[in-house]
Specification:
Number of helices of chain A: 12
Strand content of chain A: under 5%
Order of helices and strands of chain B: EEEHEEHEHHHHEHEHEEHH
Largest sheet of chain A: 2 strands, antiparallel
Distance between the termini of chain A: 56 Å
Helix content of chain B: 25-40%
Distance between the termini of chain B: 28 Å
Radius of gyration of chain B: 18 Å
Order of helices and strands of chain A: HHEEHHHHHHHHHH
Oligomer: heterotrimer
Largest interface: A-C, 82 and 79 residues
Helix content of chain A: over 70%
Chains: A mainly alpha (288), B alpha/beta (253), C mainly alpha (278)
Shape of chain B: globular
Strand order of the largest sheet of chain A: 1-2
Strand order of the largest sheet of chain B: 6-7-8-3-9-10
Structural class of chain A: mainly alpha
Shape of chain A: globular
Number of strands of chain A: 2
Amino acid sequence: MNDNRAILKDRVVRVLLAGFAVSSILFLFLIFAFIFIEGLPLFYKAGVGKIILGMKWAPTRGHFGIFPMIVSSFMVTVGALVIGGPIGLACATYLAEYAGRKRKLFLKPALELLAGIPSVVYGFLGVIYIVPVVRTVFGGSGFSLLATSIVLGVMIMPTVISISYDSLMSVPRSYREGSFAMGATKWQTVFRVVIPAARSGILAGFILGMGRAIGETMAVIMLAGNALKIPAGPLDSLRTLTSNIALELAYASGDHRLGLFSTGIVLLVIIMILNYIANFVIKRKVIR
Amino acid sequence: MTALDKIQIRGLKLRIGGNEVLKGIDLGIRRNAVTGFMGPSGSGKSSLISIMNRMIDFEENVEISGDVLINGKSILGRDVNVTSLRRMVGTVFAVPLPLPRSIFENIAYGPLLKGTTDRDELHEIVVESLKKAVLFEEVRDRLHTSGMKLSGGQQQRLCLARTLALKPEIILLDEPCSGLDPISTAKIEEALFELKKEYTIVLVSNNTKQIARATDHAAFFLMGELLESGATSAMFTNPVNQRTSDYIEGKFG
Amino acid sequence: MRINPRLVDRWSGWSLNVLTWFAVGILAVIVVIIFVKGIANVDLGFILKYPEDMGRHGGIFPSIIGTLLLVALSLVFATPLGIGTAIFLTEYTKETRFTTILRFGVESLAGIPSIIYGLFGFIFFVIKLDMGWSLISGALTMTIMILPTIIRTAEEAIKSVPRNFRMVSFSLGATRWETTIRVVLPSAAPGILTGIMLSVGRAVGETAAVIFTMGSSLRLPTSLMDSGRTMAVHFYILAREGISMGNAYATALVLVASILGINILAYYIMNRVISRYS
């Protein structure tokens, strides 16, 4: 009769686990639903165009323009990619193609540990060491697009390295061997054969790095200054979509608060688009 | 089929994903004997085995018609208690598959689930099963080391001991010796020779010589059909079907 | 003028090497700076004492407790939910519309920035559900944050358990649940554990989502409804308000040391058990 108990238990467990799974879905969708439900009304009320393309952000007086922040977010992201992308790719290439087993065993985890350092610490160190340098060498307050991009670049390196590394490693050995057999040097093989073969994965890594950069909050608050205009150059202060939410959330109410939700929606949509593009880029390679 | 049959297969047809894997099998399997299933790969022998232990349930797109009776009762119905069926019908697979645990824990796994928790009782069961599988002497002083550290032949006997621990009535062995060296193979065949006194055994094999050595009855399958069955010695000296004799002589396979 | 390809080859290999060591160097510099500047203020007293004068003096004991409580509570919710979901997805269902939707949800949540969690948690838990800035608001928010990671790593770990093990278990008369608990989960445990530890590492360093849900009270949280600080939040406030550089570095040291410790432990577990089972 032990049998029947076991079979009954099995059925009960099945229902229980299904319940867990459903709860998970609910939790997960709760967050999407809530943000959209709270934020959409303002789009109707104030007009989608006025919000997304509006230049003035003064929410207590009815201005919800977040265009400068959208641009700032993108500029910071591009800046981060310019700094973190190539170095990250270089590291991934070194790890995948050049490093011996012992070195790899040490280097790879070490680079991954960079991802574990909290963004507040990056921001703090950036304020103490990078901002003054920017100030003295280039002028301005130092709290700038440049400083932010540098620190953010370092922060997205682990993402870029990890995904690029996986892509490079999944290039079949035969590609390299074929190239060597034709008398190519190591660099020629890496540069002309392996990297191009892995390019969709590398691209996806860059895009996901962008996603990380655009969502970064704490470091950006500490480094970017707080200017509500489109930055004219790398030395200008700026405010991103994320800083907007973080800086005003605590004391916002009414329509002001709704404005922050709208900011959140725009941010979410941008990130989701980036994720889709990254996935699409990877899938294209697989089908080919 | 006779009253001496432990298992009766009647008009059994099997389709997997649109392919006819078994095209109508009628066969009786004698109790307390070793029955061999022989035939080239893909003839449906393993599929038949997986119906007998209801492991076929884990495949998708399966259609079964006909019936399989054990001790006179059908094992194919929806209301059949599959877990106790699988204890009654023990299976040894082609690849030795020890669980990542000690030898002791491997063998005690089944009985533990069945409800035996007394440590001494389990120990007794483990020792007895190892003896029947002709493995005890080789591992008696390392029962608590990992089962994965044994050689292939030992692992396979471990798997045999594992099923014996559940005191089954039937033991199915699906090409158990493929990939084993001749000595290990001999040890397993030696175990089967003793075991058939207590159990009903079905041995699937691609190796006609093994069938000739180790079985009392044999059934020859080809492309999902049962071409011939009967006493092993008779089949090998005087096969009725031409294809049977071709196969035995190695003209194809 | 063509450059000698062998020259390019040597130079490029060398550059890549340098760049990589440069990147690792950044990590080393960060760790060294924090260590050197923070160690002066970190002693047993720092860890065990309460902050005085807004954190200018004294220790960070309440923040340490706050961090532990927040993470522990989040794990209490997220681990069974996450592992249960992963088990359900891999062992109990076939690929249906339901599972596709679930996977889609999990993947989509992967990239959501922490400030969005902060926004959500603040308005939903703190205000709408009237839980206020509290341990429970923070933990519920954090749970949603780490749930996708736990589901994903658990699923991967479970999927990588060979099918054969399950088949053997079934053939010996085990039910689906018995097989899951006695064969699948023990084999998948190191992978699952690693995923959990990485989530913990992330949670400990998290600021944006925590400061808006758990608040920043300097008191020691003693109940679910109490507000409190985590080390990351405390560090952020010290830094932002310029309260005490010394203590800021010290807090950073404890914070980073904890996270690095957790990550290293996670690697160690993963590697050690991989070698044990192969």
